[in-house]
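To whoever picks this up:

The parser on our side crashed when reading a file containing two proteins. I've narrowed it down to the boundary between the first structure block and the second sequence. Both blocks are reproduced below exactly, byte for byte. First block:
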Amino acid sequence: MDVSRMVEMVSDRVGDANKQLFTDLFLLKALNKAQVQAIQLLDNDYMTELEELETNLTVTDGSIALSGLGHTVLGGEEGILLVKINGGEYCNQITEKELKEKEGYYKTASIQDPYCYVFANRIYVLPTTITKIDVYYLRTPTDLKYWLNADQADSGSSTTKFDGRSADGLSAVNDVYNNAPIFHDQNDEFHVVTDYVGADYEFAVLPAGSVAFAESQEFHFILNDFDTLSRTYFVGFMCDLNPALHEIVISLAEAICWTMDGKTDRRQAAMGMAEMEIDMLNAMVEVAEGIGLKI
């Protein structure tokens, strides 16, 4: 679900469709906080869209900094799913408190039976002779974005062209936003992008606006889960989580709004809806069982 749709849904649920009580900026902050809450409450099995794999990472003196990974790790140690010797065995993940237990002669780590642990935002591997590892981890979700800045095109006043801004994270690659529907706020009009020039962040759109685009205006993308536009260039304009989880995020954002409005009963109702679905999903996750006999 795109962010613009999520904002509208939260606004509708709190009975503020005209956004007199909760502004777009507040609703966006509520959604970003709700997204983090949902991730914290749901089992990691539902976070597949946040899974990352980085291979052939260099280990120096037996460790590597989490900050050296390509993304911020979600939840520190909890976000490290697997560590593997590059081209070799998977590491047994332990805590720093278990290190003492591994000092015995028969338990010493080896290339055939390696260990790893996370401490002080670093991944440590044993034995320290390991020089290359692969890391499977969960990244933090992308902050949700909504309104983007629109200015008069550098090529001059126009009803079919306007410029975006690099500060909003727009791509510098030509044509990546072609065919994307947009909504222009000040003109209160919908358009479709027909051409995009990455060097100038220039959008060409149809149908033409009723008036020429001007400086310091705003627009947003209107995206759907079923369209064929590349998600690579719309990072942040759509929620990273699986679409089946978006309703949970919206319910949690609704609860945040009711909290700010002092409506405790409505907050509890919205939280109850979210928690019920979260509990149901977490209960469906299979827990590994031992191989012994059941009594």
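<<boundary where parser fails>>
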Amino acid sequence: MSWISLIPFFIGSLLQTKVLLINKPLAHQKMILLSVDSNQPKQVASKISDSKGMTRFRVENQKDHTLVVVTSYKGLTYFSDLFSGNQVPKAVLPIVVYPTKEADKRVHVRELNLSFEQRGALLNVDESFVIDNPTHFSIVGKKMEDSDKNEVFRFGLPNSAYALRYGTGFQREAVSFDGYDVVITGPLAPGRNYFSLHYSVDKPRLRLKVPVHFSLPISKVEISTNKAALRPTGLNFKSAGKKLFENQDIYLFQADANHEKSFSLKISGLPLNVPFTWWLPLFSLLILALTLFVPRKLHLSSVVPPSANEKKKLLSDLRLLERMRKREMITSSEYQMKRLRLIQRLSAYYPETKGNT
């Protein structure tokens, strides 16, 4: 092995980058080489692009050393592809930046996917959508009232949705709420932008109304369900067959939204789930009637208490109920009603003690 071949090992490898404004070289652009091995990125070097948009960095040959080149243009940050310190790209590494624009009529929701999964009294919803930006501009939106952020687009959630979790495309600092609307304040890059989220609906009854609302026009809608009885209405949905996913049949429906921004979607075929809050007034009336019409001479002492084993089981159920509440496995109304029932049954073990007269 020649000593000349060892020179790159000691002095590092040459990294060449080229920054382009769409397809034209961008001069006098600050380019930063970052190390992203830790949670806190570290600046390695900084250069200014020349008249041809070129910058050159000397990169140390370090194994398991992940690097990226970053630049900012018009207030937006752009990144190169990631590369390793011991595998520096030999070809010129391009970074493309774009001019900005508030909005464009050609930006639209290319495809909206809603997946409904019935699990007992819960209905889990996985929502994903693709926003197509066919322009050569980064869409940055308009300034919102009483805020220093721009609204790029928004979409609505059902008013009964809870346990919301964001997936692809969402950044915490670029999301805000306006009632039941989710407002996106981050830019939309040219090309296709992918988003996904998950939420649940508590105790849907027979038919669930899902108001679909976007600030952008929608081209196509696809619905999937895990039950043959669950069917969507509201658009001219057509069956797209079924597929096997994770050992269960998934039923597919498709419709053309004709670039509408909002429509009323209904999911029918759900089981009847009556919330405990509906029964609470009836229980209250029943208890009141019993207190009015049961003879006064009937005392708790005349009621035969349950066995000691059942007392132990009731206390165990009460502790389990507390754990379920802390883990948000049941709703607040279910917790209150089930706790009331358990305490009523346990009260037979703790008779009221009369004071001395």
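After patching the parser it read the second block fine. Residues 108-268 form a domain with the Immunoglobulin-like fold (CATH 2.60.40). The mean pLDDT is 82.
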